[in-house]
């Protein structure tokens, strides 16, 4: 109570007294602080019961006022006094000793405000960055301390300053000798304090450091006995080492990172998020030395991956895949969830959001990081989390476990945005192989083999989930995905067989048109596809459709109509039902195909694909052709379309249509050209569908009232008819409807790709 009265009285005197020059006023407040340590005998009273906080605040006010009164960059006498007399070193020592109790908090606030409010660069001065570095080491030593908030504010302002001037980070990369000393426990701390005190006890007229050229400020003639008395008092302080947070610090070269890493484990969510933000700033610094130190001499990689692993393992053994897919978009900085307030809560939702939130943080951190650091971080996630934790779950035999782990993989495939992390994820799922596949070596990358096999799993749920994962994977901007799954097997075009032009082989269709076929060039739906709506890079869009040896492209319009009508006429009229229902015609697919193709072109633009197929003369047509494991499973599934559940068929055809949209000439030829001359023993998408249609024609004859039943099933699927009595052969009828719609979709894709290529 008496000290508070003294403080009030002092402020009143200062208000009435004539104003002193800023430097004298500054020195007065600093001496008032030093006098406390010289004169006080009670070092147990909290700092808030002393005048120290108000003196520190006044010193800050004076420094800001002095800077505002001078030209930018000009150092005033008060700032020179602070630098020359190593005031920050002294405050660090007092804060470390936390004498009087609460002093550490006051020192952190002073440092934070000083760095935040002073515009001129202070960190290059050795008498600033050296005590700042020492104070950084004190942060995060003990979790949940009363000073946590001040610690994170201080660390974040240092990070912000480094972001403004990245070269300054080199001042914070300590050599290993110093870091070894700092790890020595209580004795090392005492030694460090003594060294600081030795530097404080020197005469104030000592020579200046080269980093801080000082002008004639008039401070050299200040008496030194008070500083000596202060250092003597400091030697009597009881400095004990606080127990450190249990985090391994390998070399302690980058203490700013280590302190932030400790604070990411704070029980206070706001502190943890702030620490994550600080790390985000540090990893983005362009300095190579800092990036190397960050990944090799700190626990950052371990923190990211270990927390990912622990959060993944905390998930329930079985989570509904629909819940995993539909849980709201997660932002790492907004990981706040209340079970009571959530109407759509489900068991494990809190754990799922925590995992997805941390994965989002890892993704964003790698996305923002300097390239060397980003690669190292992504590889750590690959090795320590993808392979170490996720792979065993994906390779298990329990159907429930497979379904849950595949749903989680699907979710993070959708969520990842960092190109470098995506690359590691792709290598994890597919492997790095780029040479053509052989049937004997399809299990060379076990996880890839297992996931592709799961596309044809006995469990329809597992098949659908795995197919959806591959569908989203194909939409990612990474060239290796399509090349590994499909393109490497089509590179030599050895699915084709060269034979000379033979008149008997000409198509019976006159002028490429079938009676009643719509002239698509006149379709008003395509009035919006103008040169303005197409991509400017035409070189590789000209892949549709390529000329085949026995069917030279003399008339482009005829060629595209022949291809379109080949797909439209695949399903016989007696098996078609769409023309009985309004709004289900072929034209409904054209707009979607145009939009999707444009999106795929934008993704593939930087992959420098060729504009036309590889010349047959340069292809190794003698090599045995294998479509690859992925297309093999898809074609096998497509061949069973009449005997599979409706949902499985939708997913299989969805993946195949995605593949068909890619603007690569070999994909176009293999999947969308009905006139390609297939080599002996080879199959294409068109040939697979032809076989299905042949089987369908036989089976139709055995079903009574086939057409009315087919129409009823279509109307029920569209919601135009209520569910009623059970219809026999329902699986086959639904399969026929999917087949008809898929052929229309392929026709639309073929036309859109041709139109995009031929538009000038």
TrEMBL record:
This is FHF complex subunit HOOK interacting protein 2A. Residues 627-719 form the FHF complex subunit HOOK-interacting protein C-terminal domain. Residues 199-229, 533-557 are annotated as: Disordered. Pfam families: DUF5917, KELAA, RAI16-like. InterPro entries: FHIP, FHIP_C, FHIP_KELAA_motif. Residues 199-209, 219-229, 533-545 have a biased composition (Polar residues). It comes from the Eukaryota. It comes from Bos mutus grunniens. Belongs to the FHIP family.
């Amino acid at each position: 109570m008496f000290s508070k009265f003294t403080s009030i009285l002092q402020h009143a005197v200062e208000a009435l007294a004539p104003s002193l020059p800023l430097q004298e006023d500054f020195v007065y407040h600093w001496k008032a602080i030093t006098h406390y340590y010289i004169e006080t005998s009670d070092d147990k009273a909290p700092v808030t019961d002393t005048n120290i906080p108000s003196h520190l605040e006044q010193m800050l006010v004076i420094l800001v006022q002095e800077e505002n009164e001078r030209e930018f960059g000009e150092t005033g006498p008060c700032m020179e006094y602070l630098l020359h007399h190593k005031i920050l070193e002294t405050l660090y020592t007092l804060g470390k000793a936390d004498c009087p109790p609460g002093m550490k908090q006051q020192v952190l606030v002073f440092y934070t405000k000083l760095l935040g409010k002073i515009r001129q660069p202070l960190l290059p001065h050795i008498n600033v960055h050296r005590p700042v570095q020492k104070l950084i080491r004190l942060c995060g030593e003990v979790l949940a301390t009363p000073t946590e908030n001040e610690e994170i504010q201080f660390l974040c302002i240092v990070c912000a300053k480094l972001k403004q001037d990245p070269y300054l980070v080199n001042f914070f990369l300590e050599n290993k000798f110093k870091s070894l000393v700092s790890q020595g426990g209580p004795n090392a701390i005492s030694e460090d304090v003594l060294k600081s005190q030795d530097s404080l006890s020197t005469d104030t007229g000592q020579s200046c450091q080269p980093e801080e050229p000082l002008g004639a400020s008039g401070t050299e003639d200040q008496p030194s006995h008070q500083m000596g008395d202060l250092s003597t008092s400091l030697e009597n302080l009881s400095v004990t080492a606080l127990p450190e947070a249990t985090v391994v610090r390998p070399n302690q070269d980058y203490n700013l990172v280590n302190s932030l890493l400790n604070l990411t484990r704070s029980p206070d969510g706001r502190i943890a998020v702030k620490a994550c933000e600080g790390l985000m700033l540090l990893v983005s610094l362009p300095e190579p030395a800092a990036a190397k130190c960050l990944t090799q001499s700190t626990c950052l990689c371990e923190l990211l991956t270990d927390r990912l692993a622990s959060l993944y393992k905390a998930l329930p053994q079985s989570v509904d895949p629909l819940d995993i897919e539909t849980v709201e978009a997660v932002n790492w900085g907004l990981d706040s969830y209340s079970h009571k307030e959530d109407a759509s809560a489900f068991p494990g939702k809190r754990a799922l959001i925590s995992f997805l939130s941390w994965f989002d943080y890892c993704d964003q951190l790698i996305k923002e990081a300097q390239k060397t650091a980003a690669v190292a971080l992504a590889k750590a996630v690959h090795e320590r989390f993808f392979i170490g934790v996720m792979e065993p779950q994906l390779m298990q035999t329990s159907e429930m476990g497979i379904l849950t782990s595949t749903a989680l993989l699907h979710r993070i495939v959708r969520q990842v945005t960092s190109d470098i992390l995506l690359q590691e994820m792709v290598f994890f799922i597919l492997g790095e192989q780029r040479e053509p596949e052989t049937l004997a070596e399809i299990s060379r990358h076990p996880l890839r083999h297992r996931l592709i096999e799961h596309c044809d799993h006995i469990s329809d749920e597992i098949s659908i989930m795995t197919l959806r994962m591959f569908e989203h994977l194909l939409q990612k901007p990474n060239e290796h995905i399509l090349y590994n799954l499909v393109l490497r097997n089509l590179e030599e075009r050895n699915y084709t067989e060269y034979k000379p032009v033979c008149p008997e082989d000409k198509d019976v269709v006159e002028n490429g048109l079938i009676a009643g076929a719509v002239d698509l060039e006149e379709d008003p739906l395509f009035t919006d596809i103008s040169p303005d709506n197409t991509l400017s890079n035409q070189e590789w869009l000209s892949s549709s459709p390529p000329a085949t040896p026995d069917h030279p492209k003399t008339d482009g319009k005829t060629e595209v109509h022949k291809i379109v009508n080949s797909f439209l006429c695949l399903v016989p009229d007696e098996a078609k039902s769409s023309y009985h229902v309004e709004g289900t015609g072929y034209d409904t697919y054209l707009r979607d195909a145009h939009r999707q193709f444009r999106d795929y072109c934008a993704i593939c633009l930087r992959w420098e694909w060729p504009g036309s197929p590889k010349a047959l003369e340069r292809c190794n047509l003698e090599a045995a052709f294998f479509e690859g494991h992925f297309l093999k499973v898809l074609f096998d599934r497509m061949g069973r379309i009449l005997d599979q559940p409706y949902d499985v068929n939708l997913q299989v055809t969805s993946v195949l249509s995605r593949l068909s949209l890619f603007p690569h000439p070999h994909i176009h030829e293999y999947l969308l050209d009905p006139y390609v001359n297939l080599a002996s023993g080879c199959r294409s998408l068109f040939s697979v569908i032809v076989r299905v249609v042949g089987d369908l024609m036989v089976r139709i004859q055995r079903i009574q009232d086939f057409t009315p039943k087919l129409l009823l099933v279509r109307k029920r699927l569209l919601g135009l008819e209520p569910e009623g009595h059970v219809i026999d052969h329902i699986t086959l009828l639904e399969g026929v409807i999917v087949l008809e719609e898929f052929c229309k979709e392929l026709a639309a894709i073929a036309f859109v790709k041709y139109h995009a290529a031929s538009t000038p």
